[in-house]
Design goal:
Structural class of chain A: alpha/beta
Strand order of the largest sheet of chain A: 1-12-7-4-2-3
Structural class of chain B: alpha/beta
CATH class of chain A: Alpha Beta
Number of domains of chain A: 1
Order of helices and strands of chain A: HEHEEHEEEHEEHEEEE
CATH topology of chain A: Rossmann fold
Largest sheet of chain B: 6 strands, parallel
Radius of gyration of chain B: 29 Å
Oligomer: heterodimer
Largest interface: A-B, 50 and 70 residues
Shape of chain B: elongated
Distance between the termini of chain B: 68 Å
CATH superfamily of chain A: NagB/RpiA/CoA transferase-like
Strand content of chain B: 5-15%
Number of helices of chain A: 5
Shape of chain A: globular
Helix content of chain B: 40-55%
Bound molecules: iron/sulfur cluster
Number of strands of chain B: 19
Amino acid sequence: MSTDTDTDAVGQLEHALEELEVSLERVSAADASERLAALLTEPAIGVDLPFESVSLPESVTTEPTAAALADAQTGITPATFAIAEYGTVALESRAAGDEPISVYPEHHIAVVAASDVVPDLAGGFDRLADQFDAGGDSIVFATGRSATADMGDLVHGVHGPGEVTVVVLEDR
Amino acid sequence: MAERSHAPGQTESGGGGSTASHTPSNSRAETAAHLRQLLETEGDAIHAHTSVSNLQRHEVFDETENLDALRSEARAIKEDAIDRLPELIETVREAVEANGGTVYVAENAADANAYVADIVDDRAATSTAAESASGRPSVVKSKSMTTEELDLNDALESEGIEVTETDLGEWVLQVADDTPSHIVGPAMHLTREEIAELFTEQFDPDEEFETAEELTRFARDHLGERIREADVGITGANFVVAESGTITLVTNEGNARKCAVTPDTHVAIAGVEKLIPSIRDLEPFVDLIAKSATGQEISQYVTMLSPPTESPTLTFDEPDEPIGANTDAETNGSTDREFHLVLLDNGRTEMRADDQLRETLYCIRCGACSNSCANFQAVGGHGFGGETYSGGIATGWEAGVHGQDSAAEFNDLCTGCTRCVDACPVKIDIPWINTVVRDRVNRDAEPEAYDFLVDGLTPDEESGGLDLGKRFFGNIATAAKLGSATAPVSNWLGETAPVRALLERTLGIDQRRALPSFERQSLVDWFDARGGEGESKRRAAAGRKETHDEPTDALDREVVLYPDVYTNYVDTDRGKAAVRTLEALGVPVSVPDLPESGRAPLSQGMVATADAQASKVYAALAEDLDAGRDVVVIEPSDLAAFQREYERFLPERSFERLRDNSYEICEFIFGLFENGADPAALSTAGGDGERIGVGNGNERGNENGNRDNGHPIAYHSHCQQRTLNLEAPTVAVLERCGYAPRTSTVECCGMAGSFGYKREYYEVSMDVGDRLASEIEQASTDLVVASGTSCGDQLETLLDRTVPHPVEVIAPDHG
Ligand code: SF4
């Protein structure tokens, strides 16, 4: 379901991400696989995407080994929802390995449905509370790239990814 | 325990019997030397970082529409949570156990450390993680001030456990064997060059480290390996959601995420005060914490885990096994994850029962009170801090968890300027906590040998033992009255070398600081001699005729001008200017002889004396308030006493009455303008050429200021005035009178009443003042005004020019 508010929210998300130097890609479900293939750097690992008729490119390894996790350049995970106001994606800490796959590789690509983009933090907490009620009670709000100023200047990509891309499925 | 405290005299106070408030001249000199060294070695780096965070917080706070409501909501949640703490501990225990984890409530540091060491040993014996290089059990940690409070690292190391900090700042400190200088940016006092040198020396790289980029890469690789090998990951928790057993970690680097899910065992250590009831209650905190800490809208990672999580365990020494090989298909979760929540009491239950310290438990440790503090910006947490915590709120934390002696070592660095009050996301009255602890420290001190010297000068309500200098400054009204009565002799005497030496030795008044010069005729006497209220009515009637032909009710006011100590005895000119200005705008004035507000004793922690003063002031003003007169105050710190601290001293109705009917002088003038009074009755900049050149120099300043219509004027508001939101009316009044004010961004002038007089703090005071002075010099205006007496004094010394109160610039010349 795609409504005007979704489009607005996606616009706002894009704007917030721009400030964080994170790019946002709009894509239809049909083109998603191809676009992801173009975005990633190999070796790439990922978590199966839960969106109807969207699959990961062939080059992406799911259920990676520990070695593959350590070597991966790109990690692709779904985001349960996104918060437009702050440019935040919500990643679930699940058995499928979303958490390590999103935090270990240098480049994280988060895939989110346009209908899951909520306008603000309050909307995010509505979703979060629902999620908790449904038993999914481990979630990370990730906003932008990992950063530190502890070494005297701002540097990105410390323990977490130095590059982040958010892919929005316009028709999901 | 290695090098926990950077404060001087730690060996003495470590014994437990000594009284840290007892400050004879040798320990004043020690404190001064210690602070001087910090100013030189760490001050610049700390100032650079804290002032950026401070400005960014101001910006993001300004952009946040519902900020005040958010802060109130956050505070209410904390109040409720602390109120229900025992119940929440039981709730979280049930929730964590239902998730498959364990909760341990540790009474004190030793208890917590022993528990954690046991877990690590147990897990290391059965762990599937790769052997660490040393073969010892190993732990990786994300940043946690609570574990600093426990000295956990030392405790684990002494059990043969290898501990690695993975937050880069904490790791730098671990490598340097140093302690945090800031609760959010622990290595803030070190420059990139210093870190590069340290790392080059320690790790002997092929090429010397230089850039932050190189250092960060190196750290990432080095620490990445430690994380992969670790048996146990230890994190703190910013918040713990009781109902779901959810640990919330707010971070920017990503190390906490890795520490929590890479090793199969996760230990989260949190003070019991971190509990909040439900996931919904988390929202305002997630919204506020990054804003107040660094000025970011939200932190990079807000991790909300209800462990043990389903996230697969990572076994890097079995590289070819798929991650999650240990995942149990039935529960769809990892089978061998273990989670322990260690809730630390360590004095918190007592803090909760203490009406004055309880508020400290609402603290979310964002560091905004450090960043907004001019003294903290100058010396950092190694000066403005105790055993573990630093900044304004550290007084409460240290008094609660380590005892009063640890708080006493740095508590006097809080001048009560209140700039942290607006910064605090949970609206803690941080200056009040500092005042209360100062009072307690005073009361526990031994009587001093020189007490007789100040006895006649100190009609206070304090029991003996108080530091002499504090006692003197706390009773400054009496000294000022005497000084005025004996002026000019008192002024001459005050400038002689033997007297200055005596003052320094006994009262700790730094010889380098110019003393106030008393006026023989006080403002009250001047006003009486001029004809008192009758004369003022006559002049106001004349003024009214000139400025507004049809007087409105709104302008039909009568003012009691409060003769604060400095205006009355030292800086009578600004009092006279206020009287003339009000009369020119048609408002009759009275200047009765009123008691000191209690501000002076408050700043020394003499709460009982201040309380008694509040009652006296209210009693003296009650009739005027009944008669509907307005109380107008020139010195912002006295107004702040009426409007903030009196709430604690007076019955609610009395407090509200005085609060609602007292005004800062320019605020009141602005109100008159708004109701139709005409600025033309005053000295305005427009055609009033003679005003230009007050002060020295620079006929027309360059025009790069924020307002370009009007005559440029540099204006430093007063710290407490800013907290009362009263900078804007003065700016507006100056604008209406034809000026283009340029306001300072420095939070405080560094003088802060008595602070800048004290030998141990003179240099800190000058350092803070220098920053303000250079900002004002950059404004290149020929006029500089300041609202506070001490701000004015400080700027006059530093800029070598006159710095009047704004009302002196706009007052009509004669009368
Ligand atoms: S007292 Fe307030 S401003 Fe200071 S660290 Fe705690 S929450 Fe932040």
